[in-house]
Amino acid sequence: MSEARKFKVETRLSTHAFRPGGMTVADALRRADAALETMRGPCLETIDSAIAEIERRYGAGAAGRADEPFGDLYTLSSRIIDASIFFTGADLDKAARALCQLTALCEAQRAWDWVAIDLHLDALRMLRTVGQAIGERERLDVIKGLNQVTRKRVGDPDALPA
Questions:
Q1: Owning domain of residue 122
Q2: What is the spatial distance between Cα 43 and Cα 11, in angstroms, rounded to a whole number?
Q3: What is the pLDDT of residues 27-70, one digit of tens each?
Q4: Contact in structure between 128 and 51 (CB atoms under 8 Å)
């Protein structure tokens, strides 16, 4: 039986990574943070726009909200989840996920539960406004409460297929 031979392959990346005169990790992280900061404003606009459209179409005062499609509310809520990467410390993504789960359960039952939806919308607005100013425990209590409302009024959000 022959013995295995090992070869060290020089990649272009390894060649460039260890050359003198490059960028430090701290500099690279600063540049990355600066580049990401330019996206913060548009992400916050997306969140605000999605919440406004949800309110306009599905809010307590929306005429004809019962005729609006389930899928649109789900899509608007998922936009909030996507854009929340720049709005950390408010748990908006978790509240929007809870609204997605509620919407999916309502769709499965083919019936809106407006009390639960209105409560989820109130929580979204509240977390957008003061979410970063309240403590983590309080925010987690809000999310836990949303899941409890969904469980009690519509069904178990954990029973949804992944």
A1: 47-159
A2: 37
A3: 888 988 888 888 888 999 999 999 999 999 999 999 999 999 99
A4: yes
What single DSSP character describes residue 135?
Answer: -
Say if 17 falls within a structural domain: no
Chain-centroid distance, C-alpha 22? 36
Sequence-separated (6 or more) residues with CB below 8 Å from residue 65: 57, 58, 59, 112, 114
Helix (H, G, I), strand (E, B) or coil at 98: helix
Q: Taking each helix axis as running N to C, give the angle between helix 25-58 and helix 114-130, from 0 to 180 degrees, rounded to the nearest 10.
A: 140
Q: Specify the number of domains making up the chain.
A: 1
C-alpha Rg value of the chain to the nearest Å: 23
